[in-house]
Every structure is written in C-alpha cells, then in structure tokens.
C-alpha cells in the first residue's frame, strides 16, 4: 500500500475548513469511549490525519470524492458524544465533522427536515415555538447532533412514549452521500431508512433527515424518593403503564447511585432510592395519586418554565448518571440491559448488590413499557465484567454490550444483511469508518 | 307506600322545563337497550312519570330537593345512547335530562371544564380551535354527552393511546349534586372521582367535569382489507404496538361483518376482512410500510379535512358496527370481550364461525394494546347466549356482559365498596336510578 499523499488531499479540499492541529485532531478523533475501561485501552491512541468541517452537501460530496480518489478512510463525526468509540477512526484518515451543517430545512407541525449536524436542544427550542418538539432525545441533548443520534444512539427521554429510534415511524427519510467512484446523493424513505439507521456511519454520510415530531407539553420535572428499591421500580413500571398520565422520562436509581448526583443532594436523602421524572403539567394531579399509592415522597418539582432555565433533570439520567458517578469514582463503568421484567430486576438487585448498582430507564419496546438498565458496575477485571454479562444473559436479560466498538457485538448481536448490502453498494471500497462493521470484516476475509 | 303527589311535584318544579307528554316520556325513558334481546323484553315498558330539563346547577339542586322531599326515584339521562338500559327508570319517577346543561366552563391547552350535558363532537370542535381534542370518545360522539360517557361508557376512539375512562388521569374532577335531606354540591378530585365514574348515575348527579385533553392531530381515516382474518387481526396488534405511529382507532372486522356496512360497500369487497383506522397524517408513510408488511390493501383514505365533512369512519366502528348490522339483520346481538391475546381470538374465530362474527377494537389496558371484542352474535336463545358467554370465560376471555342492566353484572363483576359507601352518603334513601346497583340491592336486603 503506498503512502497517502496528504498534502495533495489537503490542497484538493483547500476551500473547506480543515483542521490539522494535533490537539484539535486528538479531540476530534475521540468520544466518550472512556466510559469503558476495555475500550479505553484499545482506542486512546487512535487519531484522524485530518478533520474537515463541511458547511453543506456540496462540500460533503467533494470530501467523499476526495476520499475515494485517494482511497483514505472517512469517519463521520457529529458531536462525538458516543460511548463506544463509534466515531473514533480506527485506521486514521479523514474525520468529517458535521457540526457546521446545522440548518433546519423545514419545520412544520408533526414533521421537520434538518441537516445532520443540527443540535437537538437548539432544534427543540425552535420547534417548541410552533408547539412541537423532538419525539425522543438522549441526555446529551444539549450538545449531540441529530445525525449522530441516528448514527450511533438508540433511545432517550421520550422513549417511554415513542419507543426507540429504530421503531418504524421515528425516522421518516434520510439523504445520504455515497463513497462510490462517482459519489451520489441517495434519498431513503420509509422502511428503507433502516439501511443507515444506527449503522455507525459505515454505509453513507447522512446529510439531511426527515424526523417526526411530538406535540410539546409543559413538562414538569420531579424527584420522588422511596424507602425500598423495588417499590421505586414498581412505581416506575406502574407509571409507564399508566395510559392516562402523559410522561417523557422515568428514571429509577437504586441507592447509592443518588449519592453521586451531588448537585441534587438536597433532594436525595441518604439511603433513599430515587425516581427522576418528566410529567405533563396537565397530569400532575393523577400523578400525585400514583406517588401516594406507591408510598413515594416528592422532594423536587420544577415547572416547565423553571426547568428550562437551570439545567434539566435529564442531565442526571440515562448515561449522564454514569458520567456523574464516574466523575466521583473513575473505577465505575456500566452495562446496558433489557431486563424485560421486574422479577429479573429484583433478582439482579439481590444477586449483585452494590457491584451492579441498578439504574433503570423505562422505555417502550414493541408497545410495552419495560425496564432497561444502565447499571453502574464496580469494575475489577475484564473477566469479571464478562462474567457479570454472562450471568445476566443466562438469566434471560438482554445485554447491549457497551464495551465493544463493533456494531453487531453491541446491541444488535446479529448481522444485518440489509445494512451490509447497502454498504456493498454505497461504500464498495470499505472506506467508511473501517473496522466497525463485523459483517464487512468477515465478508472481506471470505471474499 | 302512599301514592306520589305528582301535581304537587310539578308545581314545585314549575319554573323548570318539564315534559309530561306520553310520547316524549316514552322516548326519554329508553335508550339502546334493544341491542339486547334479553333486555328488550325486560325494559320496554319502563317509563318515567316526568322528565325535567334543568339548565344549570341551581335547577339541579331544586330537582334533587324535590325528589328527596317526595321520595321519588331520580334517574339521570344524558343523550340516552347507553346500550344496557343504564338510564331507563326501572321504577319510574323523575328523569333528569342534562342536555340543556351544555356550557363549556373553561377550555385551555390540556384541560377543560364542562357541564355534564355537553355533547362530545360539539366540544371537540371548540377544542380543536385551540389545538386540542378529547382523549377518547365513543362512536356515539356526535350525540352523546360527556356526563353520560362518564356515567355509563367505558372507551372508544383514542383508547388505543389513552386507555379507558377508568384509568387514572382520564377524568380529573367532578362536581356532584347529592340526594341528601339537604342536597349539597360536592367536588371530587383525583382518585376520588372513581366514586362516581361509571356508576350509572346511582350515586350523585354529575353537573360539571374536569377532563384532560389530547393534542389534536389531523387524523386520516383509512380502510385496509385482508384476505385472511388472522392477518388482519395481527396487523391490528402490530399497529397497536407500533410506538412510532400515532393512531386513534384500530377496528378489525371479520367477513361477513363488512357486508353490513352498506354505505362503505365500494371499499369493502366480498369476502375480505377489514381494518377501519384513524392514523396521524404525519405518520402515513410508516403506516403504509406496515400495511405492506402484513399484505393489506388500502381501499379508502380520507384526509382529516375530507373526513370531517362527510360522516366519519368512526360511525362504522365500536358499537356502531352492531347498529348497522342489526339494521340489516335484527336477529343479531353482540358481546363485549377482553380476549387479551390473539391466540384466544383465533381460537374463538375457529370455534364459533359465523355464530360469533369477530369484531375487534384495540385499546390500551394497563399500558398494553389488547384486542377487545364486540362480536356480533346470531341470537337464538338466551340459553345459547349464556353458553357462548360461558365458553369464552372458560377459555380465559373476560366478558363484560351487555345483556344486564345491573352495574356489577356487566363489566365490573365485583362490588365496588367505594361506590357503595359513596351512595350511602349521598343517596341515603336509595332514590337514584334504583335497581341498578347490586351492592345497594343486597345491602337493602341484609339491612
Ligand atoms: C453522558 C452521556 C449520555 C448519553 N446518553 C444517551 C442517551 O440517553 N441515549 C442515547 O441513545 N445515547 C446516549 N449517549 C450516546 C450519545 O451521546 C448519543 O447517542 C448522541 O446522540 C450521539 O450524537 P453525536 O452527535 O455525539 O454523535 P457521534 O458520537 O458524533 O456519532 C455517533 C455515530 O454516528 C455516526 N454519525 C454521526 N453523524 C453521522 C452522519 N451525519 N451520517 C452518518 N453517520 C453519522 C458516527 O460515525 C458514529 O458512529 C450518551 C453519551 C454520553 C457521553
Ligand atoms: C351505536 C352505539 C355505539 C356506541 N359506542 C360506544 C363506544 O364506542 N364506547 C362506549 O363507551 N359506549 C358506546 N356506546 C354507549 C353510549 O353511547 C356511550 O357510553 C355514551 O357516551 C353515553 O352517553 P349518553 O349521554 O348517551 O349517556 P346516557 O345513556 O344518557 O347515560 C348513561 C349512564 O350514565 C348516567 N348519567 C348520564 N349523565 C349523568 C350525569 N350527569 N351524572 C350522573 N350520571 C349520569 C345515566 O344515568 C346512565 O346510567 C354506544 C352506544 C350505541 C347505541
């Protein structure tokens, strides 16, 4: 393989914003892979040769052409907040940073069309002006891009109503730039969007997305505390199953997890298990009745207006819980688990004790509210971590392993023939985010 | 028991609108009890002595005082569209018709306060002007009152998202006039509303209700046809479980039920099973993908604007299906069934054939979309009807028997101690809709 002619590439891209400064390159090559001690070791020295920041689709096409011409890897990056090294360029090459592609193309009741680099919170602010908002968003909502959420995320606040990103209807269409000999722009609509949905940017550069919106409610943020963990968990399930109460977030944290949320310490007394919630203001009264039924105590309540001023409870939930915990105890890592039932939650709670502190996020899967876990794990060794994973799986839980950067080894488990076929078509040279898609790696070996 | 002094009562109520004309009395004493051949025989000769039509709560208080003073039965009537003789005065007396109490007291995003006699469609028209609508409504939406829906109904369009009326949050507060020696106005809020929710007007006259609203969508009405019934049923379940597709109505009708909907015959070909649906206009594309997956064919599609002009598909669903079928074949009656699972639906479909033609309405129960049945039954004898009911129950289905006017013998099955206690308090003389609450009848015997 001949050495890449970087000066030539740089001069071809001269009209675009290019970053070559080593500090910047390092920053723009990495993400939140360090939540995993396993990935930390494997990925911390990976660097792009070059970062390019296109401002529109024409520039993206130009970058695609150049990468094909010089046969260099191209890795797309949104805000770089992924947790599994999704946007880390394993083989170096070009990182395409989408954050300057942040135009809202259209915004109407129910539907919007945005460029991939639009940040979710910024978008929501605009959408709420017309009474709508994103159906779902991760706890990195303030910084993460919509394209990155589709490329590497899965669920978040709102998922207790609308399910996951992969659910039919939650992404209506995408425009994708290919890495063929003559890069093209393709539009995928309806079920076809699954070809690139959660593909870690391995098969096309998403430039624009059509996303459905949800009616915007005045969300009230609340903390409810409980004496017993399973009481809190059952409350979460009951709230998830309460069809008459409109909600956006149901987070349950077993003590001592609340002790890591120091900014909220006034509302999280020693030894109590906590629910962090977002509830429609119109449903507060029935909500309070539910709290009463489960013996909870409301310690924090911010109206929608108050909540948007300061920082939102959202930023103490989902993987932000892990972030806060790790800032106090860097030996902590986490798992992602579909428990499916509360019985299994209880079993794991009893079995692991504080080695796997239970953090639940309720979300809809196939029409049903289920408890998913982002447990905090006291990390000792990789062997023990794998043992913990194995035990969960043996007991019938589903683990979406966050300690691998390989697409199929995380949540999906099996090869997606549709995504592979699409990659064969749009990225015939395998330049996009190389090393992440097992299907491609194995095909390369067998070809 | 001394004869009632009706002239005296009439003169006490002289300032109110009073109806004594026999034809009117007969009309205002009955409801749609005739859907049941069993109830038909039992109830067709029941008549009120007098109908009063109050225009406000002060007049309601006056009526309550008068009924207590003269110890005459009082039965509340909304639009009289109930199916089980709920508002038929078994012991005569006064019928209080609420239809002139039709003021909207307040209408704000998310919440409204209405008088009990407000008609649902009329309310929705107003609510939609500010972007909201009723969370749920029966297929008698155009004529039925909100108070009557609470007093005697259970679910309808919208229930696939918000569940049933009884679910916490779907009724926020009520004002109730009592029949004590000194009739009072009570306000019940939160869980306390369950005291009068679906109580057939046996324990208080609801004068005002606070109800939560849903964001109004532009609903598209569609008919999808299928070759196989179970395909249609599975499609219904899949749609119910599709968290990314916003919907309001999922009705599935096994052939030959569609043959009874003659006004829709152009869209309902011979031998095909049909789905009648209301889907958010914003989600039409993913919806079409789902139809494709299940091999359905869309034969009818009206946009929200077109649909509001003519008559709505709603009026061919829920118990309107029964209405249309009975207008062609008066020997038909129906059942109300919680199948809970599609396996049970299939079993009953195979077992009964056209004796129990399956009509499914999907609705959320405890957070999960389930198939409920309003099967059309080819009536032969009461014994056979009871046999059919028994068979369903033996196989694990839940039947809400629509062939009884007794509150507890319908859907509830057990005595509600809370409603009984409330009746003891607010209707100590047992004047309200006498003969309908088993708990009261049995208590009366044992006292
Ligand atoms: C504290 C914390 C909390 C988090 N909480 C959540 C959460 O609640 N839910 C959740 O799902 N995730 C969560 N995450 C993960 C991550 O923040 C989100 O998934 C986020 O949406 C990713 O967006 P991003 O712009 O940072 O994407 P990036 O990390 O930049 O990219 C993610 C993946 O998408 C690909 N990609 C990016 N843009 C494009 C494009 N235009 N075309 C094709 N591929 C593209 C990248 O190559 C990469 O593989 C969390 C992470 C952290 C650190
Ligand atoms: C063709 C057809 C279709 C139907 N579809 C549905 C359906 O989809 N879903 C459904 O749930 N029902 C359905 N029904 C039943 C009925 O139409 C509804 O429940 C409707 O909401 C009843 O409203 P109403 O004003 O007619 O009440 P009424 O029949 O007048 O009264 C119903 C009960 O409530 C009591 N009541 C009425 N007003 C008050 C008050 N102010 N205070 C206290 N008690 C009161 C009455 O005493 C009576 O017991 C259907 C009926 C028919 C004939």
Please state the structural category of chain A.
Answer: alpha+beta
Average pLDDT figure of chain A: 96
CATH topology of the largest domain in chain A: Vanillyl-alcohol Oxidase, Chain A, domain 3
Largest sheet of chain A: 8 strands, antiparallel
Count of DSSP H/I helices of chain A? 15
The largest interface is:
A-B, 45 and 45 residues
Report the radius of gyration of chain A as a whole number of Å: 22 Å
| The CATH superfamily title of the largest domain in chain A | FAD-linked oxidase, cap domain/gating helix
Shape descriptor of chain A: globular
Task: Quickly name the level 1 CATH class of the largest domain in chain A.
Answer: Alpha Beta
Strand content of chain A: 15-25%
Distance between the termini of chain A: 19 Å
Helix content of chain A: 25-40%
Residue windows where pLDDT falls under 50 for at least 5 positions of chain A: none
Please give the CATH architecture of the largest domain in chain A.
Answer: 3-Layer(aba) Sandwich
Oligomerization category of the chains in this entry = homodimer
Task: Catalogue the ligands.
Answer: flavin-adenine dinucleotide
């Amino acid at each position: 393989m001949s050495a890449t002619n970087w000066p030539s590439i740089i001069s071809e891209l001269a009209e675009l914003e290019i970053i070559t400064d080593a500090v910047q390159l390092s920053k723009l090559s990495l993400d939140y892979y360090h939540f995993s001690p396993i990935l930390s070791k494997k990925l911390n020295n990976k660097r792009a040769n070059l970062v390019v920041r296109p401002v529109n689709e024409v520039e993206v096409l130009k970058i695609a052409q150049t990468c094909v011409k010089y046969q260099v890897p191209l890795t797309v990056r949104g805000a770089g907040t992924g947790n599994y090294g999704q946007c880390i360029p394993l083989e170096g090459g070009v990182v395409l940073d989408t954050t300057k592609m942040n135009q809202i193309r259209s915004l109407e009741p129910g539907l919007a069309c945005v460029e991939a680099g639009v940040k979710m919170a910024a978008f929501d602010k605009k959408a709420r002006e017309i009474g709508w908002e994103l159906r779902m968003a991760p706890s990195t909502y303030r910084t993460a891009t919509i394209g990155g959420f589709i490329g590497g995320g899965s669920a978040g606040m709102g998922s207790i109503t609308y399910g996951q990103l992969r659910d039919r209807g939650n992404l209506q269409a995408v425009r994708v730039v290919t890495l063929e000999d003559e890069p093209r722009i393709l539009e995928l609509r309806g079920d076809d969007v699954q070809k690139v949905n959660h593909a870690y940017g391995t098969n096309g550069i998403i430039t624009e997305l059509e996303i459905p919106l949800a009616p915007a409610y005045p969300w009230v943020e609340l903390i409810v505390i409980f004496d017993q963990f399973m009481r809190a968990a059952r409350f979460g399930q009951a709230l998830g199953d309460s069809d008459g109460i409109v909600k956006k977030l149901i987070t349950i944290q077993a003590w001592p997890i609340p002790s890591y949320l120091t900014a909220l310490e006034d509302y999280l007394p020693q030894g109590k298990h906590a629910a962090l919630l977002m509830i429609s203001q119109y449903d507060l009264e029935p909500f309070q009745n539910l709290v009463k039924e489960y013996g909870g105590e409301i310690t924090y309540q911010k109206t929608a207006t108050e909540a948007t001023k300061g920082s939102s409870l959202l930023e103490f939930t989902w993987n932000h819980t892990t972030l806060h915990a790790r800032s106090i105890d860097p030996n902590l890592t986490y798992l992602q688990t579909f428990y499916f039932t509360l019985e299994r939650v209880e079993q794991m709670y009893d079995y692991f004790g504080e080695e796997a502190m239970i953090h639940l996020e309720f979300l809809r899967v196939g029409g049903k509210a289920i408890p998913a876990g982002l447990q905090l794990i006291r990390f000792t060794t990789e062997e023990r971590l794998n043992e913990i994973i194995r035990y969960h799986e043996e007991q019938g839980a589903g683990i979406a392993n966050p300690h691998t950067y390989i697409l199929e080894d995380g949540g999906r488990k099996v090869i997606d023939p549709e995504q592979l076929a699409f990659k064969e078509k749009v990225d015939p040279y395998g330049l996009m985010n190389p090393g992440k898609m097992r299907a491609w790696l194995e095909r390369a070996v067998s070809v």
